[in-house]
Amino acid sequence: MTFNIIGFILPEITIAFGICTVILVNSLSKKASIGLIHSLILFFLVLALFFSFVSLEIPDRIIFNGHYMIDSFGTNLKIIALIAAILVHLTSVKSKQNIKNEIFLVQLFATLGVLILCSAHNLLTVYLGLETLTLSMYGIVASNRSSVDATESAMKFFILGAIASAIFLYGISILYGVTGTLSLDSLKELVIISSLEIRIAVAFIACGIIFKFGAFPFHSWVPDSYQGSNTTAAIYISSVPKLGAFALISRLFLDALNAMSEFWSVLILSAGLFSIIIGNLIALMQINLRRMLAYSAIGHIGFVLLSFSIVSDTGVSASLTYLLMYLIMTIAAFGLIESIASEDHQHIELSDLKGLSKSHPSVAFMLLFCMFSMVGIPPFIGFYAKWMVLSELIYNDWIWLAIIGVIMSVIAAYFYLRVVWFMYFENADQPIENKGLKNTQSITTLLLSLMLFLIGLYPNPIIDYTRIIISSFLLID
């Protein structure tokens, strides 16, 4: 019986075993080769991905006395998270600083937290996965110990994260005090009669989730973390944890607290709307490329939350579709930034991109693809992502929200196309000396850049995939 239960959680066990193996190798051999560590981490990520695909054949089942849910929704999110973690790893193998700081080991811990969140079916398990992810993210941001900026941004992130976690935990405690249960199944039946106490609890829980997304008003950690950490850390925290946040908001709000959707949807709608406005407006004033992408990420997450707040199968599937397309865009963009960054020059300014089309034509061309996609220019995937969200808003008679979304997208075009202008129409005073793309990094970034265009030409597979994921999970009357 125990062996059968272990079979249900093989992806999590694989990542946990990989963590132990990497720690053991590092402790036994302080001079372990970079290639060996990278290969070990990549092996365990791929193995966990394989077990996740195998888990798709397993019927839905609740294990560990109701604490863990094995279903198609959670398994598919695990697959996406593991693929994203693999892509992050492949786009980050260039920097020797990473292995010295054991950043990839901490990323494995964070990935384990995301996997737990994808299947958590009890508020205790939810908090376990959430803290595993959050504490790991603190370490990822602070991984560059020699950098004052990294230490400062990690400290800010830690303080804000501790406050957000405390608010989230307080919301859980109120919910438990009122309902007497931590089970998500039991909460579905007990929160039908909404009271003031439950509304306060849900509002606190929403604050914690919004922080994990990096949305307004809990967004201040995002630009500091993206700019202060090294590029590898920025690639990871901008991508994989978002899937954990999506799993969290889906399990709690769409499943356990669906009866209160009229209340919490307003909170999510407000956070999404202000994220789009604040993120894009402040991004206009940024000269640091990573900080600009950080504020633009807040705007993108705003679209995800806006679509999610519709609380329908098509709205939530559009939200997940946007999130997946955002992951492709952001991993590709940060991977390209990593390719032109160096150990002594991690912080790329917009002025550093002058003449990039002449010094690094392939990098400039792929970065152009990323910027066009983030703007939403057809036929790149960013166009279809925004089109789906705006269409859902109009279909649900939220025309004024759609108009705001269009206006903010037009405003965002300025700072995205400014990157293209610097690369192709400005002459560099001192060209970037870095050699650019190398080996697996070049293949990965090339693949991601092509996906921005090819999926944009034929987006139906990814759209249908997200609809299948949501339809297997979401049961809304």
Q: What is the number of helical segments per DSSP (H or I, 4+ residues)?
A: 22
Order of helices and strands: HHHEEHHHHHHHHHHHHHHHHHHH
Low-confidence stretches: none
- Beta-strand percentage range: under 5%
Distance between the termini: 37 Å
The count of DSSP E runs of length 2 or more, i.e. the number of strands, is: 2
Shape: globular
Strand order of the largest sheet: 1-2
In percent, how helical is the residue content? Answer: over 70%
Main sheet summary? 2 strands, antiparallel
Mean pLDDT: 83
Assembly of the depicted chains: single chain
Q: What Rg is obtained from the alpha carbons, in whole angstroms?
A: 21 Å
Q: What structural category do the secondary elements indicate?
A: mainly alpha
Describe the SSE topology.
Blueprint: H1 2-8, H2 10-28, H3 34-55, E1 61-63, E2 68-70, H4 72-90, H5 96-100, H6 103-119, H7 123-141, H8 148-179, H9 184-190, H10 196-213, H11 221-228, H12 231-237, H13 240-256, H14 261-283, H15 289-308, H16 313-340, H17 356-359, H18 361-375, H19 381-395, H20 399-425, H21 439-457, H22 460-471
Descriptive key words:
single chain, 477 residues, mainly alpha, two-stranded antiparallel sheet
Give an overview of the whole structure:
This protein is mainly alpha-helical and 477 residues long. Helix content is 75%, strand content 1%. The chain is built from 22 helices and 2 strands. A two-stranded antiparallel sheet has the order 1-2. β1 and β2 form a beta hairpin. α4 packs antiparallel against α6, α8 packs antiparallel against α11 and α11 runs antiparallel to α15. The chain is globular, with a radius of gyration of 21 Å. The mean pLDDT is 83.
